[in-house]
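Summary for the steering committee. The consortium agreed at its last meeting that each partner would contribute one worked example illustrating the joint modelling workflow. Our contribution is presented below. We chose a case with several input lines so that the handling of multiple components could be demonstrated. No manual editing was applied between input and output; the record is shown as generated.
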Amino acid sequence: MPGWQAIYQQLKDRNFEIVAVAQDTNGVKDAGPWITAANPSYTALIDEKHLVSKLYNMINVPTGVWIDDQGKIVRPNEVAFVDDRFKNFSGLDSMPYLNALRDWTEKGSHSVYAMSEERLREKLTMNNPDIILAAAEFGLGEYLYKAGHLNEAIPHFKEAQRLNPKSWNYKRQAYALSDPKRDYGTTFMEEVEKAGGSKVYYTLPELTPRPAEQINQKPN
Amino acid sequence: MMRCGISLGALLLLSVACLPACGKETPATIIYDDRATEIAAADQDAGQLWITTDDLKRATGFELKPQGVCRNELCFPIPKSREREFVRKDAGKMWLNLASFAQLVHQPVAHDEALSAWYFGLRSDQRQGLSSLEAPDFTSPDINGKSHSLWDFRGKKVLLLTWASW
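What follows is the complete predicted structure of the assembly.
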């Protein structure tokens, strides 16, 4: 979060806002200390219900979405690191993404990193019934956990993980609420290894600039 | 013998008239729009969830109107030919099958049978934002409990970021 504060200081005068939303079932109790420590001047919110992940079909953190001044998505879900603290784990370099962000905050829809509408539609189409049902199973698990029924919540968290196996959020949040070895027979790192290792844990952002003719044709 | 036959017949008739609701209402918890409501008497069987229209209003904000199941401007008409799957009158009250209604509006439902808890997820109208490319709105509190909505920032470019403590 301190990293984002520095970026925000550099870019906020470009009619730009950062809205950072914690996806934490235990709300302020878990997310609060991080926010207090960073004391950001951008907008920091707490989303106990993981509603943002549900609405945007996000499967991991940190995830960034660019939204233009008309409220339209111009780049959908992608991994958004502000520094290289986790580079040893992910192999990801944060610089290309931050440079793209700087370019977009300056040029808006004329930025080569604003995606074409066609590509956006490809990426945003979401009609998989399993993924839609997974969100409800996760929501029921969260409710039962908070009502003091952890044992009853676990089968619903497992069902959410089965229906949307690509979601790391469903795994990691559930593991954080209990003993993963005992309740799920696994750990986060074991799951990462099963999925091919930490270097493929995050999907690289698509940062190939848009061809010039597309930009002049029609801004998004 | 005769009297017994009559009363048995009357009993049968009574149970048929009451089907499928009579005498088996049990408590349920409905979580709708991420808000939990306790229902004292619901008829929940085989994946169906019948509740009174009073409870419907309390739990979901929706009401049964001549034009359909409505909340403010939002209205979902009930197909005339399938009305019996959704609505019935019983013991002087109107009942709605919330599970069938969810199916009608493409809303996912997760159910915990042992705890009689029903979670209703995002309806198709709430998921439409992505295909229109409009960024779906949401409202969340900051650390001081003050609410902020994404759409408050209309007119600015926004980097929406999710993160977590875990």
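Chain B touches chain A through 47 residues (CB under 8 Å). The first helix of chain B runs from residue 2 to 18.
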